[in-house]
Each structure stands twice: as structure tokens, then as C-alpha cells.
Amino acid sequence: NKVDFKLQTPLHIIMDVFTRNTRLAEEITRVLVFNGAKPNQMDSDQLTPLHHSVTKKHQEGVELICKLNKVLQSRNKETFDFDLAGGDKGFTPIYYALERRAIPIAELLFVNGARVCLRFHNKYEPKEWKKTETSVRRHILWKM
Length: 144
What we know:
Layout: H1 10-16, H2 22-34, H3 49-55, H4 59-74, H5 93-99, H6 103-111, H7 128-143
Helix pairs in contact: 1-2, 1-3, 2-4, 3-5, 4-6, 5-6
Pfam family, one: Ank_2
InterPro entries: Ankyrin_rpt, Ankyrin_rpt-contain_sf
């Protein structure tokens, strides 16, 4: 869990470059996570490794995190928090996915337990998201 000058751990960095070599990134991520990497550690921008994967639109990284969460949960280890607000906007990962129009990632997070109706760390929920939330919920539930 050593950090660089931006307070990023190796897990943050691998999520940033996940799609450059997906197979290698998956192996490295597994090694890091199963050897004590903190999945919810925030960097200097107040982003977790999951936030990094979502904001870069790395769907494969988010898919791996969802799989790893199930294993971590079964082992009673700290899991990736899908509802943790972060960044300068204080968005949860699902809201960053929606902001970037990464609907498949938003769906993946939703299906794996991310909550859509959630206040941000600044204690308010932007009104402009209300219509988006409803349409995303309908879209996701319709596909199920």
C-alpha cells in the first residue's frame, strides 16, 4: 500500500492503464488485492481505484472488480465500495459512469449492488440527475 507523490497505490495505477494489457493487468490486480491492497484507499484527487477504472471507461477493470468483490466478501475481507463518493464532484462510481455516458459500466455497477439514489459527500443530490436516474433505472430493469 505504498503511495506515490499523488498518493496513488499500485492498484490505482493498474486501474488507470488496465486496457493496455488486460490479461497482465488482471493478474497484477489479483495479486495486489489478495495480498492486502486496500481497495478503497483514496489518492490526492479523492478517487479510489474503482473511480479510476470507471472514469477511464475500463469496463474490463470494473468487471474484474465485481468478480473480486464476491471473493473478498466470501473471505470476509474489505471489498470495493461501489457507493463511496469521491473526486472534486463527490460522485459515486455509478454517477461517474453516467456522466461519461458509460451505460454498460453503470449497469454493471447497478447489477452488482451500487445504489442509484445516493447523496454525494456534499450532502445534496443534483436535481439534474433525477431524470437520468429514473431513465437509467428503467433502462437497467428493462434489460433484466
